[in-house]
Design a protein that fits this description.
There is one protein chain. By secondary structure, the chain is of the alpha/beta class. It folds into two domains: about 5-130 and about 245-280, Periplasmic binding protein-like II (D-Maltodextrin-Binding Protein, domain 2), CATH 3.40.190; about 135-235, Periplasmic binding protein-like II (D-Maltodextrin-Binding Protein, domain 2, 3-Layer(aba) Sandwich), CATH 3.40.190.10. The chain is built from twelve helices and ten strands. It has helices at about 5-20, 30-45, 65-75, 90-95, 110-115, 150-155, 175-185, 200-210, 220-225, 225-230, 260-265, 270-280; strands at about 55-60, 80-85, 105, 120-130, 135, 165, 195-200, 215-220, 235, 245-255. The chain has a five-stranded mixed β-sheet with strand order 2-1-3-10-4, with helices on both faces. A five-stranded mixed β-sheet has the order 7-6-8-5-9. The longest helix has 16 residues, at about 5-20.
Length: about 290
């Protein structure tokens, strides 16, 4: 049975705190933070899992949606779900080196395809949602938030926008989408002096949440969360005419148990899809 009431609130607060303060490793090179994860996962690999326990590695944008999905799944099946949130690229690195996860939820298809090509999965990847980006602005009077970013250039030229955060396009799927948005809006070159790069979508959201930047492109699923709503921040979903929304895929990993396969099947159910929509995700391609 999933936790409810105060216990669930405490767990969620701890997870969002850990997520927004998570270190900065990048794929494929390990950092000290990633090495600490490696030691923890080595211990986990040598600790027997309870029957029906699913170990999940998930992209950071899923922190709210997947928690709600797992709670319903646990209520329905009695299985336990252990969720870990972070960078899709870093989890790919860890899984390639034997991290004992059962299911991987990526922010794009690329990392899932990498694991498939390396023989680390059972079967093919499955699209489960479409990831959307949102424009966050700290002060809507200085920079009115619009889906086409039409006021950004004027804010830059007028000195009202000094720092603009995106995830690093070199390795973060949401960063690559942000670069596509700024390029198609004709802003990429003008923004170079103002960009602040987060190592992943979660750190980019941290920059926005801490008012360290004037504006940011972050996952809509995080911008829509109660955590951001309490900040009184201002966000708008970016028009899909400026970028290709992220086709997010999941895959069952080698050595998974029947409970893991049941979880993946449940994520494809109408009930789980409704939860994803409620948390700001679009439908998976073809659905």
């Amino acid at each position: 049975m999933g936790p409810t009431g105060p216990l669930r609130a405490i767990r969620r607060c701890w997870r969002i705190h850990a997520l927004l303060n998570w270190a900065k490793p990048r794929f494929p090179w390990p950092s000290p933070g990633l090495l600490l994860w490696g030691f923890a996962l080595f211990w986990l690999a040598h600790t027997p899992a309870q029957a029906g326990t699913v170990r999940v590695a998930a992209a950071a944008d899923l922190i709210y949606a997947l928690e709600d999905i797992s709670d319903v799944f646990q209520e329905k099946t009695g299985h336990r779900v252990k969720l870990s949130f972070g960078s899709s690229g870093n989890y790919t690195y860890l899984i390639l080196r034997g991290a004992p996860f059962h299911v991987f939820f990526s922010a794009n298809a690329l990392y899932v395809e990498k694991l498939i090509s390396e023989g680390k999965t059972e079967g093919k990847g499955i699209p489960y949602a479409t990831g959307l980006l949102a424009l966050y602005v700290r002060d809507p009077k200085s920079l009115p938030p619009t889906s086409d970013l039409r006021h950004v250039d004027a804010a830059v030229r007028g000195g009202r926008l000094r720092k603009f955060a995106i995830a690093n396009p070199a390795h973060a799927p949401y960063g690559q989408a942000a670069q596509e948005i700024l390029t198609n809006a004709g802003l990429w070159d003008a923004m170079q002096k103002h960009l602040v790069l987060g190592e992943n979508a979660a750190q980019t959201a941290q920059f926005a949440a801490s008012n360290a930047v004037d504006a940011a492109l972050i996952p809509y699923a995080i911008a829509k969360s109660p955590f951001f709503s309490k900040l009184g921040s201002h966000t708008v979903v970016v028009s899909d005419s400026l970028y290709s929304p992220l086709q997010q895929h999941m895959v069952v990993l080698k050595g998974a148990n029947p409970a893991a396969r049941s979880l993946v099947a449940f994520v494809q159910s109408a009930q789980a899809k409704a939860i994803l929509r409620r948390h700001g995700f679009g439908a998976a391609p073809g659905h």
